[in-house]
Amino acid sequence: MASSTTKPSARERLLESANELFYREGVQSVGIDRVIEHAGVAKASLYNTFGSKEELVHAYLLGRQATTTARITAAIEARSTPRAQLLAVFDSQAESQRRPGFRGCAFAAASAESKPGGLVEQATQGYRTWLRELFVDLATLAGAHDPALLGRQLQLLYDGAASAGNLDHDPAAALSARAAAEALLDLSTGSDR
Amino acid sequence: MASSTTKPSARERLLESANELFYREGVQSVGIDRVIEHAGVAKASLYNTFGSKEELVHAYLLGRQATTTARITAAIEARSTPRAQLLAVFDSQAESQRRPGFRGCAFAAASAESKPGGLVEQATQGYRTWLRELFVDLATLAGAHDPALLGRQLQLLYDGAASAGNLDHDPAAALSARAAAEALLDLSTGSDR
DNA sequence: ACATGAACAGACAGGTCTGTCTACTCTTAC
DNA sequence: GTAAGAGTAGACAGACCTGTCTGTTCATGT
User: Fold this and answer.
1) Of B156, B173, B180, which is closest to A173 when you measure between CB atoms?
2) Of the candidates B106, B184, B134, the residue with the CA atom closest to the CA atom of residue A154
3) Superfamily (CATH) of domain B53-189
4) Residues 24-43 of B with CB under 8 A from A
5) Is the pLDDT score of B1 beyond 60?
6) The domain made up of A8-51 is a member of CATH 1.10.10.60
7) What would the pLDDT profile of B45-81 be if each residue is shown by its tens digit?
8) How many CB atoms are closer than 10 A to CB A38?
9) What is d(CA B27, CA B21) in angstroms, rounded to the nearest whole number?
10) How many Å apart are CA A84 and CA A182, to the nearest integer?
């Protein structure tokens, strides 16, 4: 019963501020000073805890991955058939996209702002590998004729919905993606026969 | 016969350098000094010609739009049937993606690095509006049952291929998108009947 | 009572960025 | 010859950024 009544630790407050500011305005645009000011934390605490800004950004992305993974996993487990589970990924995306403050994929944004070869690219690869394998696994379970191809195409739809939903400020992008995913899935499983 | 033998003007050299450096490393990461050094141009010439960095970035994006528009339009005009024309957009994307130095959509990257409400967002909106109308028009000509929906879904595939092709360094992303587009198109036109 | 460790406030160094400014050079037209 | 316009080189100001460092406060365990 330490973390329930006590105020959050410096690390937790830093991560929460980083999540808010980095996602809203970009990891490059937001400086260290703004993060620590928003978190109410001394600069020395940040550098004692994380060592560098890049590692703070890395921790921010890992946190994003954890919440996204949990959200999608929960949506999948709430469905019973593979087909419904596959579409649930897009339902989860649509719900995330409807929330105020949606600004697209945090990994795509951070990658666009960061040099290749750093921790950002590393975290992005980890996240995308997980997502891709998820789609391929679901496509396999759903009985797709070519699970690798269908999984890839589903990820393209997912990426496109994230990108377009952000650039066009269109909260319905994920719904169009879901409809396309449904059509591709039906084609690939031959469910119209 | 002025521009054939004479060396390019400061404006042209600046735009060419901006196109190369901004696209490769990002509009925020590359400073003014690097652009003028690469162009072999004095800093005063840049500010006399463009007025600010933001306007240079804007001009760079307009140049990107012009070349992309020309490339896609040429690919379309080389085909005769609406169906082939629609798929030619993805062929053109695949060819662009195979070229060395491909780094995804310049507008998406620049948007991720820029504050909303500026010239970058404005240029991005213009480009995306053109692309979207192109897809909807081609879907209409191809006889789609719901051209607005199909056009949107094709754009999602296009965006996803650009994003995934960049983040995963996968030059075949546009080919998977093309195959998905073909399937959606056939479904939407009822060509299997 | 007191030591210890975590967090605080904030000054500071060293670097980078945009944008301005001065002074010089070159070409071309008349 | 010379005036005008375009371009060049580079110093400079002012702001901002990351990361380091000093000194202080405060809760907790012994």
Assistant:
1) B156
2) B184
3) Tetracycline Repressor, domain 2 (1.10.357.10)
4) 25-26, 28-29
5) no
6) yes
7) 999 999 999 999 999 999 999 999 999 999 999 999 9
8) 16
9) 8
10) 10
Q: What confidence category does residue B162 fall into, taking pLDDT thresholds of 50, 70 and 90?
A: very high
Identify the CA nearest to B154 among candidates B193, B189, B121.
Answer: B189
Contacts of A143 (CB under 8 A, 6+ apart): A82, A189
All residues of chain B having their beta carbon less than 8 Å from the beta carbon of residue A128 are: 167-168
Q: Please report the number of interchain residue pairs, chain A to chain B, with beta-carbon separation below 8 angstroms.
A: 117
Pairwise CA distance, residues B85 & B115, whole Å: 36
Angle at CA of residue A169, ends A114 and A93, nearest 5°: 75
Contact B163 A162 (CB under 8 A): yes
Lowest mean pLDDT among A5-14, A47-56, A171-180, A182-191: A5-14
Question: Which sequence spans correspond to the domains of chain A?
Answer: 8-51, 60-189
User: Interior CA angle at A48 toward A43 and A53, to 5°?
Assistant: 65
Residues with CB under 7 A from strand D: A 31-34, 43-44, 47, 52-54; B 9-11, 40-45, 48-49
CATH class of the region A60-189: mainly alpha
Is A183 in contact with B179 (Cβ distance < 8 A)?
no
Report which DSSP code applies to B170: -
- Say how many C-beta atoms besides its own lie within 10 A of residue A118's C-beta: 14
Q: Is A175 helix (H, G, I), strand (E, B) or coil?
A: helix
Q: Among candidates A146, A125, A149, A151, which has minimal Cα distance to A136?
A: A151
Question: In residues, how long is chain B?
Answer: 193
User: Within B40-118, where are the H helices?
Assistant: 43-49, 53-77, 82-98, 106-113
Backbone phi and psi for residue B6, each to the nearest 5 degrees, phi listed first:
-65, 150
Look up residue A20 and give its two tokens: 């808010």
CA quadruple B36, B39, B44, B45: dihedral sign? negative
SS3 B116: coil
